[in-house]
Amino acid sequence: MAGKYKVIDEANWKRAMHCAVFRNSVEPAFCVTFELDVTRFRRMVKAKGYSFSMALIYAVAACANKIEEFRYRFVDGKVVLFDRIDTAFTYLNEETELFKVVTVPMQDSMEAYVPLALKTAREQQAYFTGPLGNDVFQFSPFPWVSYTHISHTNAGKKDNATPLFDWGKFFERDGKLLLPFSVQAHHSFVDGLHIGRLADALQRDLNEC
After folding, report:
1. Which domain holds residue 106?
2. Number of folded domains in the chain?
3. Which of 26, 100, 127, 148 has the most other CB atoms within 10 Å of its CB?
4. In this structure, are residues 67 and 198 in contact, taking their beta carbons and an 8 Å threshold?
5. For residue 137, what are the CA distances in angstroms to 1, 20, 117, 176?
6. What is the domain-level CATH number for residue 82?
7. Chain-centroid distance, C-alpha 191
């Protein structure tokens, strides 16, 4: 079931001109990579016996849901704002070494989300269950390389405004455990300012666990 949303009155929307300009770009999405300090967060995750990936997916989705700009989408050509965004992530089938795309509704707590996400991922047999809805954040962990840049495939759909979050292999520096983390977002709705706000808020949440 698709999430609830309201249609934006673009005639009286402060971002209407910016949205129109970027919507017609050849590549309307942009991607930013930065480092996150996950020292305390990983310690908490290990103590609770959580999957690091599932716990981080929840943390990012919870944070991004609080920033309005990450909840805008195009639906039937109109700009809409969703009340809540759920999650979709890649999950590796270790036997076939192929990934499946798993969709899990957002929960009110990490304690509720992590076991539900793991159960759903392990029980899903199909690699793909159909096209993803507009009301998800996409996650694609890349834990094999500590990268400094990442790019994504482009289906050529300019109205695809689903944010995509990635992270690489964490590494140690100056006694801290650091994680390369990437955010791809549609410029019609999200600017560097908003990614900066997400980065700051997410780091605070990871520090406070």
Report:
1. 29-208
2. 1
3. 100
4. yes
5. 15, 22, 14, 28
6. 3.30.559.10
7. 16
First to last CA, the chain: 31
| Residue 33 and residue 182 in contact, taking contact as beta carbons nearer than 8 Å | yes
State the pTM of this model: 0.96
Tell me, rounded to whole angstroms, the distance of Cα 187 from its chain centroid: 15
Record the tokens describing residue 197, joined without a space: 């706000």
Q: What is the pLDDT of residue 2?
A: 61
Q: What is the pLDDT of residues 162-178, one digit of tens each?
A: 999 999 999 999 999 99
Contact 178, 37 (CB under 8 A): yes
Q: Write the pLDDT tens digit of every residue in 64-93.
A: 999 999 999 999 999 999 999 999 999 999
* DSSP letter assigned to residue 144: T
Task: Give me the half-sphere count of Cα atoms (radius 13 Å) on the Cβ side of residue 154.
Answer: 14
* High-pLDDT (> 90) share of the chain, %: 93
